[in-house]
Specification:
Elements (H helix, E strand, L loop, with lengths): L3 H15 L4 E6 L10 H8 L4 E7 L2 E6 L4 E5 L4 E5 L28 E7 L6 E5 L5 E5 L6 H4 L10 H8 L6 H6 L9 H11 L12 H21 L39 E5 L2 E5 L7
Antiparallel strand pairs: 1-6, 2-3, 3-4, 4-8, 5-7, 6-7, 9-10
Helix pairs in contact: 1-7, 4-7, 6-7
The protein binds a DNA duplex (16 and 16 nucleotides) through loops.
Length: 290
DNA sequence: ATCTGTCCCTGGACGC
DNA sequence: TGCGTCCAGGGACAGA
């Protein structure tokens, strides 16, 4: 699922293909809760506009236009943001993917909810999302957005001190705290599990009982896994692809996430799974302290 | 203020 | 082969 590293990889690689481009037209799927701004409004307000910048805030991407409007994008669970002409097996359903055959070039399907076509014949920007947990919203010039306003500091800047202060008096599991976007933004299930493993802290531990030293280790672990994932192109575990259709590489380096029953890379004990706050969590029962 | 449960969605895995 | 059931989960929201 797209978390900070996947969104950042998308941003960096997309940047040279969108900045300076002028939007010729938009194609949208029918209205649904995917569109916080109705498709007709997007089409009326974005046509002819030029993209000035592409920024990231937590797991959100913001397409800045030269007239001050911003297009807010969230990839949700299964969102894929990529350029026209890309090909990847992940862009096809397993059923329609020929065994062993090389994937055909992607053609927009009914999961492709947004298409930005540019002037000058450059490849269009496509937003596909099978489960529609993603979001699109137009923020008018000078306006703010409640979702963005709520976000805590970026996970790449997180410190042990911040984690320690935020977790005092909190009775939720430390894992839930890491996933709380108002505390720190950008962390999802994969990197929460991976950073907890690095810090030797069990995901179920009550937040208030995590020591200052462990908070330091957590902040350090978080930064390490996030930076390394960005370096390797993100995690392609279920649906994530880069803007050119390429897989990331971090799924091959994860230590605990979705490795239930497999041996811990440090001690060999089988990785365990437990549900924390309705989310599956993976940990080593020997290396991560209760 | 904080916490828990529910909901949105759809493809894939699995059991019969 | 085909059907039904369960699962995955980010984030908004309601209710305790």
């Amino acid at each position: 699922m797209p978390e900070l590293p996947e969104v950042e990889v998308t941003r960096r690689r997309l940047l040279p293909h969108v900045v300076g481009r002028t939007i010729r037209s938009l194609q949208c799927s029918p209205p649904s809760y995917f569109f916080l701004t109705p498709p007709t409004v997007l089409q009326a307000k974005l046509g002819g506009k030029t993209i000035a910048d592409l920024r990231r805030q937590g797991k959100y991407l913001l397409l800045h236009l030269t007239d001050g409007q911003r297009l807010l994008l969230h990839l949700g669970m299964t969102g894929q943001l990529f350029l026209e002409g890309s090909s990847s097996p992940r862009l096809l359903t397993l059923a329609s993917h020929p065994e062993g055959g090389s994937p055909a070039r992607f053609r927009p399907d009914h999961h492709t909810h947004l298409q930005l076509h540019f002037e000058g014949g450059f490849p269009a920007l496509l937003f596909r999302d099978m489960r529609k947990f993603g979001k699109v919203r137009l923020i008018e010039k000078g306006r703010s957005d409640a979702r963005l306003d709520k976000l805590g500091p970026d996970a790449l800047t997180v410190t042990g001190e911040l984690l320690f202060d935020a977790s005092r008096k909190r009775r939720v599991a430390i894992k839930s705290l890491l996933l709380d976007q108002s505390i720190i933004s950008g962390v999802g299930n994969i990197y929460a599990d991976e950073s907890l493993f690095r810090a030797g802290v069990r995901p179920t531990r009550v937040a208030a009982r995590v020591t200052r030293r462990e908070c330091d280790a957590l902040a350090r672990g978080l930064r390490q896994v996030l930076l390394r994932s960005i370096e390797t192109g993100g995690s392609s575990i279920s649906d994530f692809i880069g803007p050119d259709g390429a897989d990331g590489g971090y799924q091959n380096e994860r230590h605990v996430y979705a490795r239930r029953g497999e041996p811990c890379v440090h001690c060999g004990a089988p990785i365990a799974r437990v549900v924390v706050g309705q989310r599956s969590s993976h940990y080593c029962p020997r290396c991560q302290k209760r």
